[in-house]
């Protein structure tokens, strides 16, 4: 057939096979996105309708609602710790405990907390630890009656997952919410998050997530988001669009078919009983949120108990996104490593009918389209360079195709922005909407290549076993009111 | 050919983008105008209600005037969205006003336009409109339409039947508990909570006759609901019903029983019963919860705690040790931990 390697390459088979691969991959992804828009629209409508019958005001006045503990780990956050704790303490919920886990901070976080909240040290000898964690040194509780629902756990450093596990061990409520100390949570977020647990009858809710928004350059006063502004620089600005698209289209669509495999680590609610049963967060991976969600799902599949993972479309938690390219690369590098670790930890799910849709559909989706996407993009880039070098590319068609794909991306981002503007009133000024649309249209040029680079960097580290942990995420902090 | 197809596709995508831009623009304009209109309705309604409730003797506000004012701000049959907003205002007002003024408000609600809208919703096909109609009727306390709602208590849609069952409690009070045995489908936790709250708000005087009749129900959700009622109304005389389910094989029933028991301080006989059966609890988390209850509500029973300390449930050991340690029995805890280490022979030199 081919008398030499040269003959094989010049026969066109490589070119055609590569073309078909990219075409089919793109078509599959496009179909999924399109289905996502339809499913997300339906899910948002249903969520809105359901909320008519379970209003926040009714939940506040009810006496039998599940108790909730909010667990927030903190490591070297002395600069903003007091503001952050005050913010998390001000959340509305009738039966609410807040556990801050000081994960072996080397700065003065603990001293500041002791002074500000009048904390009293308690012995930690008798703490039951269903999930093993790094040693807990002391427990601190406030003498001030204003802060009776605050507990500070001081422990040796063990990482975010380990700190969350220590908090979950100590909690004694039905539900636990895992977040980060530097997140700003909407005042009524817990009341909204608890809704699915109150309403569901036939299936057990094993995890519930809420939308997360980017609040760089917004105004925060006493730990409450006073004025939401769009970020001034392009990197966090594009992240606003990216988060809207991911949470409103992606998560809502997967939630509609009960296919959610991830509840974001920044804000997720779980039944404590189930988290203890699976042994808590896995401290050996940096993708602990995804890993826990998959493990919880597998646990329920093994128990043969009907279950659900749900997402709420509203933005309930605000966070500060990476303000520049270097921090963005570090974040995406970590996410990529977390994804790699989780995918390899649970590889037995791959097309495993025992785990029903999770094995047949959801895990393969994550593998091909979440884990595989940066690889395909990187491979595509190499192919363009190589095929261009050999003169195999029909440039007029290629440019038109590129423009069509670019427009498709713009269309999905615009659809997400439209759904967000229609459903929520966070961004209502025409200037804000125009800025968001511009950011969406610039994303493929100024943002996307950087995140692909970050992801490839993460994979590179995994392939060559280069040790890397969470990395430092430098934050600027939110603007205070009046400043 | 390829170029032509691609160009056509690009044109289609640009057109779709333009449609979205127009939709975003319309959405922004609509929202701004709607907010303005709703604000106007709210202000007018607040003014009318306050004038109606505290009517001037010299120039009393008539229903005719109220209807005319509402019409002026857009409460007309052709504006269902405005009517829906008015209904929301009516419910909010109803929930925040109590006593004789609340009764006066009910009379007003029966005579102003939106009320008919709720009844028509009950007759509609869609579950959302139907359930919303039922909710509006019971929230506005319109008794006369109870018969139209009652038939939906076993409806296939969870929201319709839930609202109908809540309406049953709002309109029939304690007597409605007798229907528990006849309900065909499960109740969600929220439904139970709302029923308890509505019963407490509308019928604060317990009628034990109906409660005791409902005890016969075999359904798990009904038992949970009854325990929640006992807890909410602090019915000490009915505590046996909770104790009966404390060691039930059903996890949820046990969980509810432990939760409800927490409200009460029990007699020494009951406490003995709890301690005697304590080890029958099959779940360690529930054992820990019940242990907390026992330690907070009874004198220190060293034998009971030692039995648990040396018992098979390892998850409980630290809790028990802490209780003994903090109550003057440090030596018992030390003894327990010391006996865990085997007597080893040191081979030195």
Write a brief structural summary.
With about 475 residues, chain A is α/β, with parallel strands linked by helices.
Topology:
The complex is a heterodimer of chains A (483) and B (349).
Chain A: H1 5-10, H2 13-52, H3 56-61, E1 68-74, H4 81-89, E2 96-103, H5 109-117, E3 119-123, E4 136-142, E5 150-155, H6 160-170, E6 175-179, E7 184-185, H7 189-193, H8 195-199, E8 204-214, E9 219-221, E10 224-227, H9 234-256, E11 267-271, H10 272-277, H11 288-303, E12 307-319, H12 325-345, H13 356-390, H14 395-423, H15 430-446, H16 448-463, E13 479-480
Parallel strand pairs in A: 1-2, 1-6, 2-5, 8-12, 9-13
Antiparallel strand pairs in A: 3-4, 4-5, 6-11, 7-12, 8-11, 9-10
Helix pairs in contact in A: 2-9, 2-13, 2-14, 9-14, 9-15, 12-13, 12-16, 13-16, 14-15
Chain B: H1 2-53, H2 63-72, H3 80-96, H4 100-109, H5 115-122, H6 127-139, H7 146-150, H8 158-172, H9 189-202, H10 208-214, H11 220-232, H12 239-244, H13 251-261, H14 268-277, H15 284-297, H16 302-309, H17 314-326, H18 330-338
Helix pairs in contact in B: 1-3, 5-6, 6-8, 8-9, 9-11, 11-13, 13-15, 15-17, 16-17, 17-18
Q: Your description of this structure?
A:
The complex is a heterodimer of chains A (483) and B (349). In chain A, 53% of the residues lie in helices and 16% in strands. By secondary structure, chain A is an alpha/beta fold. In chain A, the strands form 2 sheets. A 10-stranded mixed sheet of chain A has the order 3-4-5-2-1-6-11-8-12-7, sandwiched between helices. In chain A, a hairpin with a 7-residue loop joins strand 4 and strand 5 (150-155). Chain A is globular. The mean pLDDT of chain A is 91. Chain B has 349 residues and is an all-alpha fold. Chain B has helices at 2-53, 63-72, 80-96, 100-109, 115-122, 127-139, 146-150, 158-172, 189-202, 208-214, 220-232, 239-244, 251-261, 268-277, 284-297, 302-309, 314-326, 330-338. Chain B is extended and about 85 Å long. The chains are: A alpha/beta (483), B mainly alpha (349).
């Amino acid at each position: 057939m081919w008398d030499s390697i040269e003959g094989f390459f010049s026969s066109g088979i490589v070119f055609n096979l590569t073309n078909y691969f990219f075409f089919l991959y793109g078509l599959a992804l496009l179909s999924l996105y399109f289905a996502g828009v339809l499913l997300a629209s339906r899910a948002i409508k249903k969520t809105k309708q359901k909320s008519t019958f379970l209003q926040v005001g009714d939940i506040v006045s009810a006496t039998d609602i599940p108790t909730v503990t909010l667990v927030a780990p903190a490591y070297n956050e002395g600069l903003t710790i007091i503001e952050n704790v005050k913010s998390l303490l001000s959340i509305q919920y009738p039966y609410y405990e807040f556990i801050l886990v000081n994960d072996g901070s080397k700065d003065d976080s603990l001293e500041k907390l002791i002074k500000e909240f009048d904390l009293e040290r308690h012995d930690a000898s008798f703490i039951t630890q269903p999930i093993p964690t790094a040693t807990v040194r002391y427990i601190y509780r406030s003498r001030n009656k204003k802060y009776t629902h605050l507990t500070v756990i001081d422990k040796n450093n063990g990482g975010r997952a380990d700190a969350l596990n220590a908090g979950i061990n100590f909690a004694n409520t039905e539900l636990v919410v895992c977040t980060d100390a530097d997140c700003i949570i909407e005042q009524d977020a817990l009341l909204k998050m608890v809704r699915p647990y109150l309403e569901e009858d036939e299936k057990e809710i094993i995890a519930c997530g809420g939308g997360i928004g980017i609040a760089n350059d917004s105004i925060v006063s006493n730990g409450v988001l006073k004025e939401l502004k769009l970020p001034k620089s392009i990197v966090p600005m594009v992240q606003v669009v990216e988060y809207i698209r991911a949470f409103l289209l992606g998560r809502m669509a997967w939630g509609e078919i009960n296919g959610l495999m991830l509840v974001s680590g920044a804000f997720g609610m779980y039944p404590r009983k189930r988290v203890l049963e699976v042994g808590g967060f896995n401290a050996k991976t940096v993708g602990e949120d995804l890993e826990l969600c998959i493990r919880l799902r597998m646990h329920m599949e093994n128990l043969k108990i009907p279950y659900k993972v749900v997402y709420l479309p509203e933005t309930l938690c605000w966070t500060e996104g990476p303000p520049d390219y270097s921090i963005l690369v570090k974040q995406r590098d970590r996410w990529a490593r977390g994804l790699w670790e989780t995918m390899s930890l649970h590889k037995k799910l791959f097309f495993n009918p025992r785990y029903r849709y999770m094995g047949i559909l959801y895990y393969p989706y994550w593998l091909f389209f979440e884990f595989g996407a940066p690889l395909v993009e990187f491979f595509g880039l190499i192919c363009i360079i190589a095929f261009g070098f050999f003169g195999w590319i029909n440039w007029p068609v290629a440019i038109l195709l590129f423009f069509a794909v670019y427009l498709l991306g713009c269309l999905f981002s615009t659809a997400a922005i439209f759904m967000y503007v229609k459903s929520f009133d966070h961004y209502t000024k025409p200037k804000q909407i125009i800025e968001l649309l511009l950011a969406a249209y610039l994303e493929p040029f100024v943002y996307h290549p950087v995140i692909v680079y970050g992801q490839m960097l993460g994979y590179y580290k995994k392939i060559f076993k280069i040790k890397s942990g969470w990395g430092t995420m430098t934050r600027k902090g939110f603007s205070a009111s009046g400043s | 050919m390829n170029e032509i197809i691609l160009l056509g596709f690009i044109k289609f995508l640009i057109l779709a983008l333009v449609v979205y831009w127009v939709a975003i623009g319309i959405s922004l304009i609509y929202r701004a105008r709607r907010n303005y209109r709703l604000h106007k309705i709210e202000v007018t309604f607040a003014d009318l209600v306050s004038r109606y409730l505290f009517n001037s003797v010299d120039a009393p506000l008539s229903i005719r005037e109220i209807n005319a004012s509402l019409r002026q701000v857009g409460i007309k049959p052709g504006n269902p969205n405005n009517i829906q907003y008015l209904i929301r205002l009516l419910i909010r007002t109803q929930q925040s006003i109590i006593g004789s003024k609340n009764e006066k408000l009910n009379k007003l609600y029966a005579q102003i336009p939106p009320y008919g809208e709720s009844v028509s919703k009950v007759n509609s096909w869609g579950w959302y409109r139907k359930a919303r109609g039922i909710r509006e009727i019971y929230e506005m306390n319109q008794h006369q339409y109870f018969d139209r709602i009652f038939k939906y208590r076993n409806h296939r849609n969870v929201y319709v039947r839930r609202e109908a069952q809540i309406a049953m409690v709002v309109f029939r009070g304690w007597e409605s508990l007798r229907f528990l045995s006849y309900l065909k489908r499960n109740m969600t936790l929220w439904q139970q909570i709302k029923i308890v709250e509505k019963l407490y708000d509308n019928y604060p005087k317990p009628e034990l006759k109906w409660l005791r009749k409902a005890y016969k129900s075999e359904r798990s959700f009904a038992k949970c609901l009854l325990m929640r009622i006992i807890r909410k109304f602090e019915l000490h005389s009915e505590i046996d019903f909770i104790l009966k389910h404390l060691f039930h094989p059903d996890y949820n029933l046990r969980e509810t029983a432990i939760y409800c028991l927490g409200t009460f301080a029990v007699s020494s006989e009951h406490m003995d019963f709890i301690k005697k059966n304590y080890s029958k609890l099959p779940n360690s988390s529930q054992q820990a919860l019940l242990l907390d209850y026992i330690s907070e509500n009874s004198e220190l029973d060293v034998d009971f705690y030692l039995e648990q300390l040396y018992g098979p449930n390892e998850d409980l050991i630290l809790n028990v040790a802490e209780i003994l340690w903090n109550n003057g029995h440090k030596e018992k805890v030390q003894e327990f931990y010391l006996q865990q280490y085997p007597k080893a022979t040191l081979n030195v030199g």
